[in-house]
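Notes from hallway chat w/ T.B., transcribed later so I don't forget. T.B. wanted the structure written out for a chain they're using in a teaching module, and asked if we could keep both sequence and structure tokens in one place. Agreed to drop them here.
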Amino acid sequence: MFSQQELLQAFGDPYTNKLVERLHNFAFIPDELISRIATEALSQNWGNNNFVLKKYLAVHVAWSIEQGRFTLGQNQFYVTAGHLQTRYGTPLYLAFAPNRNQGREPYYLVTVGSNISAPQLPIAPEMPHAPELPPGSEIVMMHDHILGDNADRFPWLSQTPRVAQMCAISGAIQWSINRGLHLPYWYFGRMSYVVPLYLQSREDITAAPDLIAPVQVNPDSLLVRTVLSPYMPYANARVAVRRHDQLPHWLIAAWDAHAALATEAEIENPEGDNEQG
């Protein structure tokens, strides 16, 4: 009744940064059920309107379908709510059914919780591994976007020549990578990395960095598309870990301090107009 191919076709193109919109096109998701998940899961800051949670589910539900990690029964299909668990360590589940309203989303979210009635409970999807970082790779920067459009994010370098700015950012990226400070980061349908940049001080690498650089791994280079403020990659990095406490303390603290101000557009695509085609 629910073939993997049919579910994948209903989910649409995975290569997008409009992940929440993609989920809502797949299924009608009542806000009260999202709130129930947020209440039952281990306490964490999901932002305004639980939008970070919606993004988390958008990615993990798609992974569950792509990996065949869903179960069937009673005209419904079931997936886990990613790797979310209750405070007692019990997984949380989602139950979907076909939407009988013509011209609407093909499915709707029926119920959520740790105690759902299903013939067989699903298991959580595997999170894709980020690619290996090729040693000695050239760091290639989209310098117009970094040094022009987003120069206000590092005013202390404003009087420095552009070549020196590029060298400073490139050197900070390599310094952090050499110390294993890079984090997995889900962006545009694949796993990549974000790298903390310590440009003014390196005395305490547990403290918040000055900037964050999203890094795309290519066969012989590392492409740096932009630089972000420390709170900006939280939602994309949260997707890539089992529990939020596995993220660095500085990232959680930066997000908590800004969460009330973060817009849905900013959470959906932290890199802004630097959209891939």
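Follow-up for T.B.: The longest helix spans residues 162-178. Might be a good example for the class.
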